[in-house]
Amino acid sequence: MRQNANLPTWRRPDPASSPRVKNKRISVMVRAVVIAAVVMVGLPCHGAFAAAQAGDAGEQVWDLASQRGIARDFNAARPNARGQTPAFPNQTRAPVIKDDVRLQTRVIASSLEHPWGMAELPDGRWLVTERPGRLRIVSADGAVSPPVKGLPAVDARGQGGLLDVAVRDDFAGTRRVWWSFAEPRGGGTNATAVATGVLSPDGAAMSDVRVIFRQEPPWKSTLHFGSRLAFAPDGALFVTTGERSHNEPRKLAQDVTALLGKVVRLDPEGGPARGNPHIPGGRPEIWSWGHRNLQSAAIGPDGALWTVEHGPRGGDELNRPQAGRNHGWPIITYGVEYSGQKVGEGRTSQEGMEQPVYYWDPVIAPSGLAFYDGKLFPTWRGSALIGALRDETLVRLTLRDGKVTGEARYLKGIGRVRDVRVARDGAIMLLTDANDGEIIRVTPAP
């Protein structure tokens, strides 16, 4: 791609700098009989494919057959929360999708420091966040810009930092960008915040920067910030927030006067969106509550918001949050504490609290969600694509009438998938979270 002469000097990734070979082509025969155990760590590995080297150093073939001796179907993995019963068929461990799709991956850019979110621009470039507080622009050929100037300070301790980024369809005219971040609030506290600004024509800086949302109350925690951004068809901005993890703040997920563990629906210019539910005594920004740590959000083919959130030890959830509904955390969950003890009274249901559409136990550690609507994978249209941090896979769910009908996992070992997007040309774009994070383009193999 020809670069504008007014742009700052861009850097290109050094292939030798990454632990994996750059610009590689990986041919994958996907059979949705997938791995559920990793012998090396002694943990179930939900799905997928182990890599066997083939050809020259620039190619890699993912070979399931070579790993069958150490793998088993992820649906056979032992759950952490034993004795729990799903509320309805296929609420967990849905049938394995049986398809044969050959995948090819190519690393577009590397040497990104813990990238977290990305958004495609009209010209095919990508805005990409790095948790330490940098926003970059990555071109289609992998050139990585210097950090965009003018963003507010972030608290990058623990899971904090610069998080998601989003643009609207009118970006070409407005050049306006939205991003979420962990905002330092004084005295060692912090909280999720959302800001908006206008990107300069040369991509070097933001102007008219305004914080349009601040989570309340702030907390002394470096965990569970959320936070994904998703624009609704009506123009409202959905923002997901975490409940900050610790026993005391997690209770606030059930407190509608607090903004921890919530989905909020905002006017993109600031304040609650018109048409939000009236929740007695509650904050006007709140759309739904009773969430743990939502790091996945997208608008589905049905025009509704879908989210995926981290459970504790077990109990990752796919939800379709509706206005004014309580999703139960920490009163109900299909997981257990990391210690193995029950969460609260160990309940999985309670009147007035929503059931997840789907849940995982053992967890996949979900981050990033997109619904496939492209042309390159016609049999995947309508599928939910979810990044898996712990599993280091791409998870695919098929749905019918709001229920999950099948699950498959692909590209085992690709890295900790932090974000998933569908490019305008139909390619699937993955963002891996590491000191040397990558943008990876997934297409059908020839």
UniProtKB/TrEMBL annotation:
Domain Glucose/Sorbosone dehydrogenase: 112-441
Gene3D superfamilies reported for this sequence: TolB, C-terminal domain
Full protein name: Glucose/arabinose dehydrogenase
Coiled-coil region list: none
Region called Disordered, residue ranges: 1-21
Signal peptide: none
One Pfam family recorded for the sequence: GSDH
InterPro entries, alphabetized: 6-blade_b-propeller_TolB-like, Glc/Sorbosone_DH, Quinoprot_gluc/sorb_DH_b-prop
